[in-house]
Amino acid sequence: MGELVLAAEEFTPPGPSVFNYPAIFGGVTKPMVLIVLSAVIIAVYFAVATRRMAIVPGKGQFALESFYNVARNGMARDQIGKDDFKPFIPLILGLFSFVLVNNYFGIIPFFQIPTMSKISFPIALALVVYVAYHYAGFRKHGFVGYIKHATLPKGVPMAIAPLIIVIELLQKFLVQPASLALRLFAAMFAGHLMLVLVAVGAEFMLFAGGFLVIPAGLVVVAGIAFTFLEALVMTIQAYIFALLASVFIGAAVAEEH
After folding, report:
1. CA neighbours within 13 Å on the CB side: how many for 9?
2. Domain parsing of the chain, residue ranges
3. Which of these, 17, 42, 125, 211, is most buried using a 10 Å CB contact count?
């Protein structure tokens, strides 16, 4: 027990500094490189997978079509509506693919960082969604019509209309994009920090030797299990991001609030 207490006093857990990456060249950091790499991976994959489409799909084509149908039918069509969803399929599919690949970088050896754990990237994607759903709303309803549509639901008593307008303005123009970015960032930041903590803790106990070798093995097993759990969280977060983008666009183009 004394050995365990002494080791705990010597162990320094990882902190937010693990997300600070030095520039590789000219101010370009590893997360920046991974962002570009993810776009290349997605573009190449879709280009290769769709090069020889068949009526009876093989395993690769079936997997691609299933992924596409999740974005097209499960997100865009269901949330935006059958009359307005088609122009937004590339955006929703792109968001889903892009976030998913960048999240998975966190559990792939050598890469080992989910790029969405850097707050600037979720903010950038949230701004893309922000522009998309407001553009869709203005185009569908006109400037005055969309502002009224977005801020004043039908049937609201005039006595409380000013309060509702302020709340809806804050929600549509500030809270929605902020929550979209922060949800993704927080999940990836916390998950990656936990994985790093497990890895560093296991390494520390293994090198400490003695009594700590046994719990080190347990920590390694727990780390493997947590990695699979984190992969599930990464998938869910990518799905939620694209789904919420569809929900926001659907609300913007809907005939009624």
Report:
1. 6
2. 2-253
3. 125
Summarize pLDDT for 150-177 with one digit per residue, the tens.
887 777 777 787 888 888 888 888 999 9
pTM of the model: 0.88
| Rounded-to-integer distance, Cα 47 and Cα 38, Å | 14
